Amino acid sequence: IPEIRGNIQKYRGEAAGAGVRTDTRIVTIQFPADISDLDELFNFGHDFARFADVDRLYSHADKIIAKRGYQIETHLNEILDCAMSTGSLIISYQPVWSAQDKKCSSADTTVELDDEKYGRIDMDMLMKAAETKGLMIRFGTYLIERIFTDIQDGKLSDGKFDYVHIPLSTVQCMQMDFTDRVWTLREKYGIHPEQICFSFTESAYENISEVLNENLNKLSVQGYRLMLDGFGKGYSNMESILEMPFMAVRLDKSLITSSVNKERRVILKGIISLLSEIPLTVVAQGVDDEETLNMLTQMGCERMQG
After folding, report:
1. Residue of 207, 209, 211, 199 lying closest to 247 (CA atoms)
2. What's the whole-model pTM score?
């Protein structure tokens, strides 16, 4: 440990000279007592810092290995294999209220997994782990097919919703054959593009590339709705939003929850006004009481969920 610490301090000094702030984490592990597989050992070396206690410089591997998040991510391949083969992924649809139409005209897709060993795994953890472990293409394709099946079978309240929001990841949109796979599923299940709104996170959109750009434009030309999700959380590039075929923008929940502050409320009102005048449909999430609903309605927000 002293030798390792000395080397780290040396490199920290060099990094600081270059204007870089380092975050040091050291973990001790007993091999093969804690981990017996060599590949798993190297994977642990890549991943442990994300699960280590942020307040501690030193950690022991057994504490990290015991954490639920680490276990889920490590065994996600087997977890998803089981869930997809048995159909135990729970897909539900949260209504999105239209202030203009005075009804729930669309629905947001949420995914959960009730695993026998690890318990309830929510959508954020599933998608984050799937991206980290390189399983997002497989998981994303399965998710789209399940939703198309639900639409075909009339499970969405017998036509109560005009369309459904389906989340996309950067990895999916970076595949050159992505739109071809969507087309194949569309033909298989007889889905009309207007029944689908693909949502794409703002943080993912920062990784814009020629392939991703082309895929989004293809989806738009084919008649699918496109929504930029999580607006206001990351770096909001208005120029890019104007160039891309988005029809709607979903505000990050933090913009809504922080609107109790007068100054932040002014910012929220300005954002809604700006996006509406482009024009883009503005969707707000985290609308959990009548006061918030009335506030957003007065600001001109068109759609809300919560």
Report:
1. 199
2. 0.76
CA distance 46 to 257: 35
Q: Is 265 exposed, middle or buried (0-12, 13-18, 19+ CB in 10 A)?
A: middle
For residue 283, give both structure tokens.
């969707």
Residues found in the chain: 306
8 Å CB contact between 166 and 143: yes
C-alpha 73/C-alpha 51 separation (Å) is 11
Place of tokens 């048995």: 86
Angle, alpha carbons 244-181-208 (nearest 5°): 30
Query: Any residues with CB less than 8 A from the CB of 23 and at least 6 apart, and which?
Result: 49
Neighbour-count burial of 145, counting CB atoms closer than 10 A to its CB (0-12 exposed, 13-18 middle, 19+ buried): middle
What are the pLDDT digits (tens) for 230-256? 887 765 667 777 778 889 999 988 888
